[in-house]
């Protein structure tokens, strides 16, 4: 097998060879240990792949940590009623206090960098592999966190946030790809939920670490220095993790793919895993994926489903809820530290329940229930906005509706899309299609944050929350019509099912 991998004159030659060799091995072994006799039919041990998944989710923790910083800063910039301690202190120390344009640049430059990193993540992941892509995403986070921590002026702070943003954009798509490709099918949903839980922990960590900023001079620099620690751990940890066998197989490195399957699944499951790959990878393993194929070519349908899911996820109002949460809690007389703890608890609780249910109820049912629950929570917000603003009932409804919204979002709309899309995208386009879809996420995220305050002032909370609730209902209808269930299926079975449904 190793000798054959050097014959890379065409993609079809290598993948066909891999398929034929896998089939020979399977036929040769059939009389002794066939699938039906029980050896291959038993699920592989989940303990083999767990350490690799845990290292990969450090990327999601970093994403959550820096998104937490963005949300904190955005709350100050977009909702000027809220006194934001970290950004206020940074602005004072670096000499741009009161300059809303400068504050906006600190926020938006991180989002811009995330869009750029995300846009190229697929090409990076396919070009140098998933492990190296993780390490590459850690590099700008280390550099950006260090530059931000040592900033003496606005320009260096903007540069640091730009670098961090690039790493933020590059990491999450690669994390979703890697976790999906190294996980056994029977726990893939559970492992996919680790991404959301790690993100929640990162968000919570950002809020907690930022608490002393007002009391301790220069503490904001510590917040940035701390962010470099998990980035270093990610870069070092990936040296000891397995490469994605799907990527190796696509590159024609078949012997290495077998070796990594053995690390991730155990020796008795290598032959079946390689045979599964050969079922759908014949003839197009190394072909370059043109951008036109993703936009209007034969893969348009799945890319459209993915982009629509991410757009609807943001149009549901989740970031607006985060931006406005401090104002809601402040109106109810709740301290900001308690408010952040409540939001974090609701987020982590929902993500944990999603982890437990993902491989039992399935992705589609969780998505449907999540979007319907979010619509109900927005309805509660509409009811609260229709009552007298300062009445206790209105405040309780507003706080309850907001926490319910965060909780139901974490049940499905938060963790499922990134997992589901890496499952439904064929291996050939998986990385690049994920990059395109998550770029849509960042664009919609930016405009929701940019326009939220203006729309709130012009439309009022009742109408705006009604619009968000409508988008949640549209999302539920979209999921019911277009999303297939992927629970317990191999990636190759999902791909075949999608091809048959076209």
Task: Return residue spans where pLDDT drops below 50 for at least 5 consecutive residues.
Answer: 1-40, 74-85
Largest sheet: none
Give helix % range.
Answer: over 70%
Task: Calculate Rg over CA atoms.
Answer: 23 Å
> How is the quaternary structure best described?
single chain
For the secondary structure, the number of strands is 0
Order of helices and strands: HHHHHHHHHHHHHHHHHHHHH
Structural class: mainly alpha
Number of alpha- plus pi-helical segments: 21
Beta-strand content estimate: under 5%
Averaged pLDDT:
80
Overall form: globular
**N- to C-terminal distance:** 35 Å
Write the SSE topology:
Layout: H1 11-30, H2 50-56, H3 58-78, H4 85-94, H5 100-128, H6 130-149, H7 154-182, H8 188-209, H9 219-237, H10 245-250, H11 254-265, H12 270-280, H13 291-295, H14 300-315, H15 318-331, H16 336-361, H17 363-386, H18 392-413, H19 416-424, H20 430-482, H21 491-501
Kindly describe this structure.
The protein has 502 residues and is an all-alpha fold. The protein contains 21 helices and no strands. It has helices at residues 11-30, 50-56, 58-78, 85-94, 100-128, 130-149, 154-182, 188-209, 219-237, 245-250, 254-265, 270-280, 291-295, 300-315, 318-331, 336-361, 363-386, 392-413, 416-424, 430-482, 491-501. The radius of gyration is 23 Å and the shape is globular. Mean pLDDT is 80; it is low at 1-40 and 74-85.
Features:
mainly alpha; 502 residues
Offer a quick outline of the entry.
With 502 residues, this protein is mainly alpha-helical.
């Amino acid at each position: 097998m190793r000798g054959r991998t050097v014959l890379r004159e065409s993609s079809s030659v290598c993948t066909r060879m891999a398929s034929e060799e896998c089939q020979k091995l399977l036929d040769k072994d059939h009389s002794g240990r066939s699938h039906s006799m029980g050896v291959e039919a038993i699920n592989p041990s989940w303990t083999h792949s767990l350490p690799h998944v845990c290292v990969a989710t450090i990327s999601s923790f970093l994403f959550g940590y820096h998104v937490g910083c963005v949300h904190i800063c955005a709350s100050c910039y977009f909702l000027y009623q809220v006194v934001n301690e970290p950004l206020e202190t940074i602005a004072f120390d670096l000499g741009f206090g009161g300059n809303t344009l400068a504050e906006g640049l600190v926020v938006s430059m991180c989002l811009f960098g995330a869009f750029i990193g995300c846009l190229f993540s697929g090409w990076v992941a396919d070009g140098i592999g998933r492990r190296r892509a993780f390490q590459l995403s850690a590099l700008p986070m280390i550099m950006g966190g260090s530059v931000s921590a040592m900033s003496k002026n606005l320009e260096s702070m903007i540069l640091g946030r730009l670098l961090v943003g690039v790493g933020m954009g590059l990491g999450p798509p690669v994390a979703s790809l890697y976790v999906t490709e190294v996980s056994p099918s029977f726990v893939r949903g559970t492992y996919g939920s680790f991404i959301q839980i790690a993100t929640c922990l990162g968000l919570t960590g950002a809020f907690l670490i930022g608490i002393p900023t007002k009391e301790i001079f220069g503490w904001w620099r510590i917040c940035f220095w701390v962010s470099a620690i998990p980035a270093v751990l990610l870069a070092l940890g990936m040296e000891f993790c397995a490469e994605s066998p799907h990527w190796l197989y696509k590159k024609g490195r078949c012997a290495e793919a077998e070796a990594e399957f053995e690390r991730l699944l155990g020796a008795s499951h290598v032959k079946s895993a390689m045979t599964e790959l050969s079922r759908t990878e014949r003839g197009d393993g190394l072909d370059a994926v043109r951008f036109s194929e993703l936009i209007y070519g034969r893969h348009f349908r799945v890319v459209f489903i993915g982009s629509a899911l991410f757009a609807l996820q943001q149009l549901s109002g989740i970031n607006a809820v985060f931006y406005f949460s401090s104002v809601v809690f402040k109106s109810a007389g709740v301290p900001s530290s308690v408010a952040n703890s409540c939001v974090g608890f609701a987020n982590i609780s929902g993500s944990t329940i999603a982890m437990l249910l993902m491989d039992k109820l399935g992705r589609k049912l969780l998505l449907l229930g999540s979007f319907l629950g979010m619509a109900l929570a927005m309805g509660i917000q509409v009811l609260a906005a229709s009552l007298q603003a300062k009445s206790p009932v209105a405040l309780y409804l507003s706080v309850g509706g907001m926490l319910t919204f965060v909780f139901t979002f974490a049940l499905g709309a938060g963790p499922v899309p990134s997992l589901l899309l890496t499952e439904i995208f064929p291996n050939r386009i998986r990385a690049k299609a994920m990059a395109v879809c998550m770029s849509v996420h960042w664009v919609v995220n930016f405009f929701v944050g940019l326009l939220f305050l203006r729309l709130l002032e012009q439309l009022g909370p009742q109408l705006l929350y009604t619009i968000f609730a409508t988008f949640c209902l549209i999302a539920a209808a979209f999921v019911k019509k277009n999303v297939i269930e992927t629970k317990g299926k191999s990636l190759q079975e999902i791909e075949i099912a999608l091809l048959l449904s076209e």
